[in-house]
Specification:
Chain B: Pfam families: BPD_transp_1 (PF00528), BPD_transp_1_N (PF19300). The complex is a heterodimer. By secondary structure, chain A is α/β, with parallel strands linked by helices. Chain A has 10 helices and 12 strands. Helices cover 30% and strands 22% of the residues of chain A. An 8-stranded mixed beta sheet of chain A has the order 6-7-8-3-9-10-12-11, sandwiched between helices. The chains are: A alpha/beta, B mainly alpha. The interface between A and B is medium-sized, with 31 and 23 residues.
């Protein structure tokens, strides 16, 4: 792992200014993606994962602002307003395909727009390439579909068209923000297969953002677990599923159907993600944590390196604080 | 289905609307509490049975009602509108409408155009810069325009223009093109010449601004909301991520989508403006169809009221058709099939 990462997010801080308070939606998120790698960002609703995704693309709207940290793309900091120079290098796929396509232009028009900007293709050549791309993402009858409007496509087909549009930018990194959440389960699997296929063919790096642990297990090489704007655990996917180090990760895994005894009630995590309004002074998961002890409510945990490259931000793994030492 | 067939279908569907509207008009006028025949009689004739019978015969009211209804509908459909009985007594109604309607359409045309050309861009501007000082100024302006009553604004505008020499240091009446008077009907006979066009335009301009003021404010408010909504759509973010320039983002991706909610607003405002405004036409002494309708109604020339109703119904159905066509041009989701 000596080579430079494709994308490196360091201590990212995104703050939303409301009339009453400052909401730290993303509070010191750090992670990396290497070329061709699939990295997962997993967390509950409101944990800051989508804001992280939008930050990478420079799409955070007012009243949100990136107030700290770096987003390094091939070593260049995008937060210094460099997004315009790297448009197309990073593409994004949103959750709801029906909102991702402009309803008043044809699919072809929108793909060709990207082809014109990034590959300098126009006219017939652009249309032909757009049809090829639609075929690549598995849209049947592509020559006819290219002239259709978004509302004429089903959700699954529309998401394929969005992926085709992303590919038209010829990206190195594809950010997928819950790309399958709005789709039927069978279509979900197809889209995941398609992404895996495209990745193998084109050596694409993918940042996969989801709340679905099952998707993470299937699709990613490396996982970052995010909670209330902070990454609480990072680990290779397999290691994370085998030995979750953070109590939050453990709780998430336990709430996946099928992993526990089918006769027992499926465990849930009581409570909800807090809205961080100031710098962390404690462990934000402590109120919901079954293993919390006194220090958890007064000390903000730092990441502790564990075996391999993995780490977790939990006092249970801090030998100085926890009597138990490492639990695994 | 082709666009032409879609339009043909829309036209066909508007036939029952016109029929229903005219039938209701007929019923209100001829089956209503006011006897149209007595209204035609002068003070001295009211006690004269022979004169009353003559008036009934002239109006065709001596026939059975159904027969009268068919005759009346038939003459409307063929635009055989007869002559007036009371107002401009004895003049040809066709000629009267052709004389009065163009002035109102001219006024309506400019008030729609001014409202659209100022209100929509201002609203879009405010929407693109939401919650900034310039947005607040534009939005406040929109509310103020919206709130000013026509009759008041008209009189104020006339007062200011009348003494423009003292207030602004130039005389509005003689500015650029000499006008014969500040108010009055525009001369539409010389529209094909540049000078005639400008003179007719300048003449209705103050009235058009007053008439369009409320719509301008409305369109500004709706335009602002529409842009704000579209700006936050995922597809705009996705286009930005794709590398689309800010200018293309605004004009290609935002503008056309923001127009969709504006179309029905603009056309429904157009009903009001083309239908003419009695108040504005009175204040500016423009002999338009709104004024004619008002006079016909207050003086009891019920046959003329009925005929003018028919003209208004046709205008409204026409604008409605235009709206349907505009929809299909702007928004591909408006199905040509399901219509």
């Amino acid at each position: 792992m000596s080579d430079e990462p494709l994308l490196s997010v360091r201590d990212l801080e995104v703050v939303f200014h409301t009339e009453r308070e400052r909401i730290h939606a993303v509070d010191g998120v750090t992670f990396e993606i290497r070329e061709g790698q699939t990295v997962g960002l997993v967390g509950e609703s409101g944990s800051g994962k989508s804001v992280t995704a939008r930050s990478i693309l420079g799409l955070v709207d007012e009243p949100g602002r990136i107030e700290g940290g770096e987003i390094l793309y091939r070593g260049e900091d995008l937060t210094e307003d460099n997004w315009a120079d790297h448009r197309g290098d990073i593409a994004i796929v949103f959750q709801d395909p029906t909102n991702s396509l402009n309803p008043v232009y044809t699919i072809g028009n929108q793909i060709e727009e990207a082809l014109r900007i990034h590959q300098d293709l126009r006219g017939r050549a652009a249309t032909d390439r757009a049809i090829e791309l639609l075929e690549d993402v598995g849209i049947p009858d592509a020559p006819r579909r290219v002239d259709e409007y978004p509302h004429q496509l089903s959700g699954g087909m529309a998401q394929r068209a969005v992926i085709a549009m992303a590919l038209a930018c010829d990206p190195d990194l594809l950010v997928c923000d819950e790309p399958t959440t709005a789709l039927d389960v069978t279509i979900q699997a197809q889209i995941l297969d398609l992404l895996a296929e495209l990745q193998a063919e084109q050596d694409l790096a993918i940042l996969f953002i989801t709340h679905d642990m099952g998707v993470i297990e299937d699709a990613t090489d490396w996982v970052n677990v995010i909670y209330a704007g902070e990454v609480v655990e990072r680990a290779p996917t397999e290691a994370l599923f085998d030995h979750p180090a953070h109590p939050y990760t453990r709780a998430l895994l336990e709430s996946i159907p099928g992993r526990t005894d089918p006769d027992e009630r499926l465990p849930t995590i009581e409570g909800e993600v807090p809205t961080p309004t100031g710098p962390a002074t404690d462990c934000r998961f402590a109120p919901r944590c079954p293993e919390a002890f006194e220090d958890c409510r007064s000390v903000a945990p730092e990441h502790v390196s564990l075996d391999g490259d993995r780490s977790a931000a939990c006092l249970l793994h801090d030998p100085a604080r926890s009597d138990g030492g490492e639990r695994q | 289905m082709s666009r032409l067939r879609y339009i043909a279908k829309r036209v066909a569907l508007s036939v029952p609307v016109v029929w229903l509207g005219t039938t209701m008009t007929w019923a209100i006028i001829y089956l209503g509490p006011i006897d149209p025949a007595t209204r035609l009689l002068s003070e001295g004739q009211t006690q004269n049975p022979a004169a009353y019978e003559a008036a009934r015969t002239q109006l065709g009211l001596d026939q059975p009602p159904l027969q009268h209804y068919f005759d009346w509908m038939g003459s409307l459909l063929t635009f055989d509108l007869g002559q007036t009985w009371l107002l401009y007594q004895g003049s040809d109604v066709n000629a009267l409408i052709l004389d009065f309607l163009p002035r109102t359409l001219w006024l309506g045309f400019w008030s729609v155009l001014i409202a659209v050309c100022i209100g929509v861009p201002l609203g879009f501007y405010a929407g693109m810069r939401s919650n900034t000082a310039s947005d607040y100024v534009a939005s406040m302006g929109g509310i103020v325009w919206r709130a000013m009553p026509n009759f008041w604004l008209g009189i104020m505008l006339l007062a200011v223009l009348g003494s423009s020499q003292a207030i602004f240091g130039f005389d509005w009446q003689s500015l650029w093109i000499e006008l014969d008077a500040l108010t009055g009907s525009p001369d539409l006979s010389r529209l094909h010449t540049v000078e005639g066009f400008l003179a007719a335009t300048k003449k209705v301009l103050p009235a058009a601004i007053v008439l369009g003021s409320a719509s301008m404010g409305n369109e500004m408010r709706i335009g602002r909301t529409a842009v704000l909504e579209v700006r936050n759509e995922d597809y705009v973010d996705l286009a930005r991520a794709k590398g689309v320039s800010e200018r293309a983002l605004v004009w290609k991706h935002i503008f056309r989508n923001a127009l969709i909610p504006l179309v029905p607003i603009i056309t429904s405002e157009a009903f009001l403006l083309i239908g003419g405004s009695v108040l504005v036409e009175t204040v500016f002494s423009i002999n338009g169809i709104g004024l004619l309708f008002f006079n016909a109604a207050t003086q009891g020339d019920l046959p003329l009221v009925g005929t003018l109703m028919y003209v208004f119904i046709l205008l409204i159905v026409g604008v409605n058709l235009l709206q349907d066509v505009l929809y299909t041009v702007i928004d591909p989701r408006v199905g040509l099939e399901g219509a």
